[in-house]
Design goal:
The chain is of the alpha/beta class and about 350 residues long. It contains 11 helices and 10 strands. It binds 5'-O-[(R)-(carboxyoxy)(hydroxy)phosphoryl]adenosine and zinc ion (ZN). One of its GO terms (biological process) is tRNA threonylcarbamoyladenosine modification.
Length: about 350
């Protein structure tokens, strides 16, 4: 009989200190997430030095908590997976050094995991990935369409040429005085407004799967400056709905077009912005219309967490991809570079 494989996973790429124990790549035994949002709120965004300090303070207790809530000890663990990048280098290194210390002390293999591969595998914790699939990745740092023909096989078919979609949400939110992170706040306001501003939709060249959100962001900011100069009333709900409609139109149309031209029947969505209600609703509708299976993880698994790193880590472990103790963080690492054929 096959023995269960337990992976202890560590994620510290941005502002969440998270440790998880995952069984066989798809069962969460524990997933502890220590969020730093309250500390970064007053600065209007993540401050890298503050993030690193919080990771240092929280990592040891988070590891202990993840093991005890999983009813496991380090002896039960088969391998330690850790986010190698992309992310804030100082923050990544806290998780990597903790993972290395555990791997060294308990003589376990260490598995480097790409943060976006982790976001993709968050879906696998709810429902098995079926191939081929298209993954729409929408986070604070990334906006990509990825084609996968099998496990750990990543082909980027489109990506943002400037701002990531979550970044655009956060910047637009700031201009209408909403707190960080702006995405959830805009999403909530957007339910109450109308698309009265008709901001542009940026499609780029015909058949391109690339994205661009900086023009939309500038259009919103310019429009608001103009209105303020003329002392006109700004309807925040309508700004939120108009901005979100533009974003959702482009993301969903390109994702569906990619599924059609790559003959794919499974679309998965990943990353913090995958929580967005407007995006979920539109994709639900379009996928039904086009007979495409849609998977979007629950909100807790959309934002940064170590469970998703453990799920991807399990497949790297099975593929024999491990690292030596000289593993280093990489703040910028291409997902195609971590493809396994
Ligand atoms: O994936 P994530 O937790 O961190 C990164 O790896 O970047 O994504 C964070 C981003 C933030 O920009 C946040 O504003 C956005 O996800 N976000 C949302 C929503 N919830 C989080 N954006 C739009 N609508 C939401 N409901
Ligand atoms: Zn993320």
């Amino acid at each position: 009989m096959n023995r269960d494989i337990l992976i202890l996973a560590v994620e510290t790429s941005c502002d969440e200190t998270s440790v998880s124990v995952i069984k066989n790549g798809n069962t969460i035994l524990s997933n502890i997430v220590l969020s730093q949002i309250e500390s970064h709120k007053r600065f209007g965004g993540v401050v890298p030095e503050v993030a690193s300090r919080h990771h240092v303070e929280g990592i040891t207790t988070t590891i202990d908590e993840a093991l005890s809530s999983a009813n496991a000890t380090m002896e039960d663990i088969d391998a330690v997976a850790v986010t190698q990048g992309p992310g804030l280098i100082g923050a990544l290194l806290i998780g990597i050094n903790a993972a290395k210390a555990l791997a060294f002390a308990y003589n376990k293999p260490i598995i480097p995991v790409h943060h976006i591969a982790g976001h993709i595998y968050a879906n696998h914790l709810e429902e098995p990935l079926t191939f081929p699939l298209i993954a729409l990745i929408v986070s604070g740092g990334h906006t990509e369409l990825v084609y996968m023909k099998s496990h750990l096989n990543f082909e980027v078919i489109g990506e943002t040429r400037d701002d990531a979609v979550g970044e655009a949400y956060d910047k637009v939110a700031r201009t209408i005085d909403l707190p960080y992170p702006g995405g959830p706040a805009i999403d909530a306001l957007a339910l109450e407004g109308k698309d009265t501003y008709h901001f542009p939709r940026v499609w780029l060249e015909k058949d391109s799967y690339d994205f661009s959100f900086s023009g939309l962001k500038s259009a919103v900011i310019n429009k608001l400056h103009n209105q303020r100069q003329k002392n006109e009333d700004i309807n925040k709900e309508d700004v939120a709905t108009s901005f979100q409609d533009s974003v959702v139109d482009v993301l969903s149309t390109k994702a569906i077009n990619a599924c059609k031209s790559y003959h794919v029947e499974h679309l998965i969505v990943a990353g913090g912005v995958a929580s967005n209600k407007g995006l979920r609703e539109r994709l639900n509708h379009l996928c039904k219309e086009n007979n495409i299976k849609l998977s979007i993880p629950n909100s807790k698994l959309c934002t940064d967490n170590a469970a998703m790193i453990g799920a991807a880590g399990y497949y790297y472990y099975k593929a024999g991809v491990t690292s030596s103790l000289d593993l280093n963080g990489k703040n910028n690492i291409d997902i195609e570079d971590v493809t396994v054929e």
